[in-house]
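Q&A log
Question type: sequence-to-structure
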Amino acid sequence: MEHAVVMRFVRESNLIEGLTHEPTYEEVFATTMFMGRNKLDVGDMMDLVYAYQSGAGLRLFPTQNVRVGNHIPPPGGPAIKDELLRILMRVNTNTVHPFTAHCWYENLHPFMDGNGRSGRTLWAWQMTRFQYPPGLDLGFLHAWYYQSLQEPRGQLESSAL
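Response status: OK
Response body:
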């Protein structure tokens, strides 16, 4: 993915979080490396999250619970990593729509912080890897909005497997 597209994507993703700084070298480098992967694993997600939010680890322990507004994700513990692996398996094989995978990821909220930006990058990886229209040409928010109108609501309630 070309540098200007990555910069624009990271800037837009940061703005969604209320972060107004220009994308850092670490954010752009990590996003570029992530987008160049042929397949994704938990380590790739961890590297990306760490670049976006230094020190924000995977919620592997039962005490690592989070709350996002009114949403309470599943409790921390080993099951978080297992569920993230299931989501990534579906993403890697393109057996789940990018919109649905993104919803599953955000619902799981696998990391202590950085889930929004890493979830959007996961979405972007799948969009570009499997060439979903309209790709990233319209930007994250526009493409996301159009997908949200097209994706059947019933599929959002399904578990990753």
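Response note: The chain has one domain: 3-157.
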